[in-house]
Design a protein that fits this description.
Elements: E1 18-23, H1 33-50, E2 54-57, H2 71-80, E3 86-93, H3 99-112, E4 117-122, H4 129-134, H5 145-155, E5 177-181, H6 184-193, E6 197-199, H7 208-218, E7 230-238, H8 242-260, H9 284-291, E8 295-298, H10 300-314, E9 318-322, H11 328-341
Parallel strand pairs: 1-2, 1-9, 2-3, 3-4, 4-5, 5-6, 6-7, 7-8, 7-9
Helix pairs in contact: 1-2, 1-11, 3-5, 6-7, 10-11
GO cellular component, one term: cytosol
Pfam family, one: Bac_luciferase
Protein name: LLM class flavin-dependent oxidoreductase
Length: 350
């Protein structure tokens, strides 16, 4: 059986979970989409140097703060500027696309950057109903997600004689697929198909433990994976002090506050963490805190201890880190401090 998860352990001792990054190519107040994508590539270059395993971009549409809507195009830009870190989607929202087009797009990426491409798949539209209509997608498209995953998977297999529809590039490349989810549905599908599974606990944490249990209990080995491989998303902000990190985290809190109020905008500068108490309306702080339950914010010591406990509690194989930090320097510094705290080893062993 051939393993093809693209999974590696990168802790200093080889015993800890791999660390990877989910980025949104965030457009901060005062910047442009081009600047956001160039910053994302620079971040990926540094993450590669610091020993992170993979760099994923999210697919969202009609959102002023996110520059990675054309996900496969953006990933090509990231891959061209790096050499060892895996690049992938976190994820492609498959109901928005035909499986054939995605097979061709990611087959092209795999042809250009062999052995470095991941294809994470989700069934949410990644946008609102009006934008779905603008994309010419039907609201019921998510109901065929399992069949679409199977069709996509088959397009990456070697073509059969006389096969009428083939993905070129794509056929025979077996790009590693991941199922992304925030409910039992995705966990059960990943288990049934024998695929690695990533849970979106960085913004939808409520079903995390039930989903992980269902995935592990029902897992059926496949050619891609002989055993379960689970990833969990968490938000991380690391700074020299707990107080500084809490201040930086307010940019993400403001972003989620905007989502709740249906007032999405560009990523805002941080404020003093105490000032957030003047911004909440009744119930908003509790709702935001519930969504961001798995947010580890503080100094290296504070964050490392909380991450260790989270890994011990969940048993996940890999952590997908999201850090919505307004200031580029502080954002890069947070990832560097996290790599140091967790003992990541650079590709050259340094």
């Amino acid at each position: 059986m051939t393993e093809n998860t693209g999974a590696t352990k990168t802790g200093a001792s080889g015993a800890g979970p791999a660390l990877s990054v989910l980025d949104h190519a965030s457009i901060v107040e005062g910047s442009t989409p081009g600047e956001a994508l160039r910053d994302a590539r620079e971040l990926a270059q540094n993450l590669e140097r610091w020993g992170y395993t993979r760099f994923w971009l999210s697919e969202h549409h009609n959102m002023r703060a996110i520059a990675s809507a054309a996900t496969s195009v953006s990933l090509g830009f990231i891959a061209e500027g790096t050499s060892t870190i895996r690049v992938g989607s976190g994820g492609v929202m498959l109901p928005n696309h035909s499986p054939l087009v995605i097979a061709e797009q990611f087959g092209t990426l795999e042809s250009l950057y062999p052995g470095r491409v991941d294809l994470g798949l989700g069934r949410a539209p990644g946008t609102d109903p009006r934008t779905m209509r603008a994309m010419r997608r039907d609201h019921s498209a998510s109901s065929t997600f399992p069949q679409d995953v199977q069709e996509l998977r088959s397009l990456f297999e070697p073509a059969s004689p006389g096969q009428p529809v083939r993905a070129v590039p794509g056929e025979g490349l077996r790009v590693p697929l991941w199922i992304l989810g925030s409910s039992l549905f995705g966990a059960q599908l990943a288990a049934h198909l024998g695929l690695p599974y990533a849970f979106a606990s960085h913004f939808a944490p409520s079903a995390l433990y039930d989903a992980l249990a269902a995935y592990r209990e029902d897992f059926t080995p496949s050619e891609q994976a002989s055993k379960p491989y689970a990833m969990a998303g968490i938000n991380v902000v690391v700074a020299d002090t707990d107080e500084e990190a809490k201040d930086l985290f307010t940019s993400q809190q403001q972003a989620f506050l905007g989502i709740m109020r249906n007032a999405r905008g560009l990523l805002q500068p941080p404020v003093r963490s105490s000032a957030m108490d003047t911004m909440w309306r009744p119930g908003e702080k509790e709702q935001t805190s519930a969504m961001l339950r798995y947010s580890f914010v503080g100094s290296q010591e504070t964050v490392r201890s909380r991450i260790d406990q989270f890994v011990a509690d969940t048993g996940v194989d890999e952590l997908m880190i999201s850090s919505m930090i307004y200031d580029k320097t502080a954002r890069f510094r947070s990832y560097e401090l996290l790599a140091d705290a967790c003992g990541l080893a650079a590709p050259d062993g340094s």
